[in-house]
Amino acid sequence: MKYRRILMNIVSEKIKSCYDTLPAAEKMVADFVLERKDDLFQYPIKELARLSGTTQAAWTRFAQAIGYSGLKDLKNAYYSEANVSLKQADKGPKIAFKDVNEYTSLQSIADNICATSVQAIQTTYRLFDTGSFSEVVNKIVTAKQIQVFGVGTASVAAYDLYCKLLRIHYNVIFNQDHHMNLMTVSQISPEDVAIFFVDNPKNKEVMQLYNIATQKGAITIAITKLGNNTLTTGCNHVLFTTSPEIDKKSGITSSRFAQLFMVDTLYTAICNRDYNNIREYLIDSYEVFNEPPKE
């Protein structure tokens, strides 16, 4: 039975998150790094290219694809994480990679769901980029209108953000019907923001909405997993989430927890930044929901 520690290496998580989107040569580098990461510190890039059957350019492109400036930056990231002691890494629940029909007890199901959910939040937190996040908050606070999109399981987080922004009286739109989304995005303007919650960046509906928003000149924000694709390279701003997947067939996705973590963090930051303007709306909504029933 294969296990993965809850406190897993964030570099490995980045590699696995965007592995399917890498070109063939970069996949060979990824395989080498995942299997022989200790060799990164023993050989220069020329020798690493030879050992992996690739080129120095492929190594540089690979490092950049997973968010580093080059091989040196990648090595530094690995080195800093290597300082976490094995004793610390062994604490907490572990993830068993099983299909839904392979569990032998309710306790093992609860343990595994807990482990994947916690890891989704932890690894997304470790990808947190303060600069990018601050820019996204500014764009949302100053937007004339905010259009929020999410397809499939990603619609759960999209709807949650929609409800939270409604509470503070922001001009926000969300629809689950694709035709309604097409109608609203056709009216988007350069003063507006389009936010895309995405599990699958290749989804045709999402790409259709993204293309229209881009053509209209709106500010585009993607909240999605790591990887090189049209959304991550084309959107004005990208907030990355990541999560472990036990079995794609099961439909049990810890990505929801990563996205909801991002929603709560966004909402809190927006309220903090715009508090003087939204304070009364927070108070009003609180009082309405906590008003005692009339006798």
Which descriptors would you attach to this protein?
295 residues; Arc Repressor Mutant, subunit A; Rossmann fold; 2 domains; 14 helices; globular; WH-like_DNA-bd_sf
What would your notes on this structure say?
The chain has two domains: 3-92, Arc Repressor Mutant, subunit A (Orthogonal Bundle); 130-288, Glucose-6-phosphate isomerase like protein, domain 1 (Rossmann fold), CATH 3.40.50. The protein is 55% helix and 11% strand. It is globular, with a radius of gyration of 21 Å. The chain starts with a strand and ends in a 6-residue tail after the last helix. It has 295 residues and is α/β, with parallel strands linked by helices. Helix 11 links the parallel strand 5 (193-198) and strand 6. Strands 4-3-5-6-7 form a five-stranded parallel sheet, with helices on both faces. A two-stranded antiparallel sheet has the order 1-2. It has helices spanning 10-18, 24-36, 45-52, 56-65, 71-82, 86-89, 106-126, 130-142, 154-167, 178-185, 204-215, 230-234, 255-273, 275-289; strands at residues 3-5, 94-96, 146-150, 172-174, 193-198, 219-225, 237-241. Residues 9-85 form the HTH rpiR-type domain. GO terms for molecular function: carbohydrate derivative binding; DNA binding; DNA-binding transcription factor activity.
